[in-house]
Write a structure and sequence with these properties.
It is a single chain. By secondary structure, the protein is of the alpha/beta class. It contains 14 helices and 21 strands. The chain has helices at residues 23-39, 55-68, 81-91, 123-134, 154-164, 186-192, 222-230, 258-272, 287-294, 306-316, 340-351, 357-362, 381-392, 436-453, and strands spanning 13-16, 44-49, 72-78, 96-99, 108-115, 118-119, 148-150, 172-176, 196-200, 235-239, 246-250, 277-281, 298-302, 320-322, 328-330, 368-369, 373-376, 400-402, 407-411, 414-420, 426-433. Strands 1, 2, 3, 4, 5, 6 and 7 form a 7-stranded mixed beta sheet that branches. Strands 16, 17, 18, 19, 20 and 21 form a 6-stranded antiparallel beta sheet that branches. Helix 1 (23-39) crosses helix 4 (123-134) and helix 8 runs parallel beside helix 9 (287-294). The longest helix has 18 residues, at 436-453. The chain is globular, with a radius of gyration of 22 Å. The two termini are 44 Å apart.
């Protein structure tokens, strides 16, 4: 069977429904993944889906593929992606798939996968494609067909969080779920924690009629900012389409980006785990490392990507990790997977000890930064260009050049980053500095380096 190669991404499978991602493809992936799981001695998998319109038929096809491979399937229904991970751990199989398009437009959908407690990524995902293209065994010649059952774990999930998190006082918050699946669970969770909740777009609607469900971009937070301005809510929380990322807005309208959030989380975790390692990705502020060291921790910069960070967290035994994209990973008191709702609960636990939560957040170290900038390229060209930068570019004023994921150049007054996106054909760029003049110098360094290798580049800075 030949499938569209474009759906096999670095961290998941994702494509346009009925174009690159079809029911046939979903069934084949389920069959291939099921065979891999069975080879590892696994006999059961969890499946769940977000609120996208194509979810029911894709999860149906995926389930048939798993059953073709002889795997028993537990369908937990319309849930957040972290609830699939939760179910996989709670049921003991460590294996599951969330059918989700995450923060992509409505016509997209995809699969986030884990086997035996580990997220699938990189070569393992490509291995599924190779197995499918090589030809999957006929079901009649394989193991007995797997069974199918349904299970509602939502109460168990909510009770697990409410049993773990304690607020020092009641809080009034606003939440914006962007019509994503988090809207089915977040209001009940935060009310159970003792909060008064103002709901924005908590009706699950796969058309996403109000705004795109991606809190990483400030334009998607404007309704939440307006709500905070017009009400007496103390804080605003926003969630992406499948509930695994968190956005935070203060009452004054300031967006607290995830690298600043993770500083607050790190300080809290380190207060109980002195000297622990804290993981953050290459897109985060250099303030993170300074802050972690100042609080007695050991900062570890790592590659971008939720699956890669999860794997590093498991490898190192670190109690906490965070990404600039908004994926927050607690191993302390939790399971080590990224969960926007749980991260929101932990944030409120910290902030409820203070009379002015916004002041606490706004006092976190900050720098002059650009947003994430993107240089479009042809397919594959982004990786070639970044590799050429790593090999040939020279930055005479640099203190250090870090190449674990693209090229991050550290200066006395800031940093510049160029890395190839693993999901779209772009070079991702980000710059940070102590002041405008330093920011301009760092940009100029990267401008010269990129144009020397690609003179026709139309740079976004």
């Amino acid at each position: 069977m030949k499938l569209s190669a474009s759906i096999f991404k670095a961290y998941d499978i994702r494509g346009i429904v009925d174009d690159t991602l079809t029911e046939t493809a979903a069934r084949a992936v389920g069959h291939a993944m099921g065979l891999k799981a069975r080879a590892d001695g696994i006999t059961q998998t969890v499946v769940g889906r977000d609120g996208r319109l194509s979810g029911p038929r894709l999860i149906g096809a995926l389930t048939e593929g798993f059953r073709d491979a002889g795997l028993d399937v537990v369908d937990i229904g319309q849930v957040t992606t972290p609830m699939v991970y939760f179910a996989a751990f709670e049921l003991g199989c460590g294996t599951g798939v969330a059918v989700t398009g995450s923060h992509n437009p409505p016509e997209y959908n995809g699969l986030k996968m884990m086997v035996g407690g580990s997220a699938l990524y990189g070569e393992t995902i490509l291995g599924l494609r190779d197995a499918i293209e090589a030809g999957l065994p006929d079901r009649a010649a394989g193991p007995a067909r797997g069974g199918l059952s349904t299970l509602d774990l939502s109460r168990r999930y909510l009770e697990r969080i409410v049993g773990d998190v304690r607020l020092a006082r009641p809080m009034k918050i606003a939440i914006d779920c962007g019509n994503g699946v988090a809207g089915a669970y977040a209001p009940a969770l935060f009310r159970a924690l003792g909060c008064e909740v103002i709901e924005l777009f908590c009706e699950v609607d796969g058309h996403f009629p109000n705004h795109h469900p991606d809190p990483a971009h400030p334009e998607n937070l404007q309704d939440l900012i307006r709500c905070l301005r017009e009400t007496d809510a103390e804080l605003g929380l926003a969630f992406d389409g499948d509930g695994d990322r968190l956005g935070v807005v203060t009452r004054s309208g300031q967006v607290i980006f995830p690298d600043r959030q993770l500083m607050l989380f790190a300080a809290d975790v380190l207060s109980r785990n002195p000297g622990a390692e804290i993981i953050y990705d290459v897109k985060c502020s250099r303030n993170v490392a300074r802050f972690v060291r100042a609080h007695g921790g050991r900062p570890l910069m790592w590659r971008t990507g939720h699956s890669l960070v999860k794997a590093k967290l498991k490898e190192t035994g670190a109690p906490f990790a965070g990404e600039m994209s908004g994926h927050i990973f607690f191993k302390e008191r939790w399971y080590g997977f990224d969960d926007g709702l749980y991260a929101g609960a932990r944030l409120l636990e910290i902030l409820s000890r203070h009379a002015d939560p916004g002041a606490v957040l706004e006092a976190l170290p900050d720098s002059l930064t650009t947003p994430e900038l993107q240089l479009p390229t042809a397919d594959g060209e982004n990786h070639r260009l970044v590799e050429m930068l790593r090999r040939h570019a020279r930055f005479p004023d640099a203190l250090e050049v870090i190449t674990i994921d693209g090229i991050r150049v550290e200066y006395a007054e800031g940093f510049g980053l160029a890395r190839a996106s693993n999901t779209t054909p772009v070079v991702v760029l980000r710059f940070e500095a102590d002041n405008e003049s330093a920011l301009s110098r760092i940009k100029d360094d990267f401008r010269r380096a990129i144009l020397a290798l690609k003179p026709d580049a139309v740079l976004p800075f």
